[in-house]
Specification:
The protein is an all-alpha fold and 74 residues long. 57% of the residues lie in helices and 0% in strands. Helix 1 packs antiparallel against helix 2, helix 1 crosses helix 3 and helix 2 crosses helix 3.
Length: 74
């Protein structure tokens, strides 16, 4: 799915997929099952987009990991 920042809203498919990913995240030990289920629910998304949702939820849910992130400036 291609989209631009102005396209995003609470009702956009990628936002809804992110909510589903957040819900599924704690139910599984690895990324495979949540990513598979989100792709099934939102087939219009690309696999790499769904993997990015998992990574984002993983970082958000693990504050100790955020402390070690080195931000890169453009």
């Amino acid at each position: 799915m291609n989209f631009d920042l102005p396209d995003l809203s609470k009702d956009h498919a990628v936002v809804k997929a992110g909510r589903l990913m957040q819900h599924l995240y704690h139910q599984y030990e690895t990324a495979l099952e949540p990513c598979t289920r989100v792709l099934e629910a939102f087939p219009e998304l690309k696999p790499d987009q769904v993997m990015c949702l998992w990574v984002g939820v993983n970082i958000a849910e693990n504050p100790e990991c955020r402390e070690h992130i080195e931000l890169v400036t453009p």
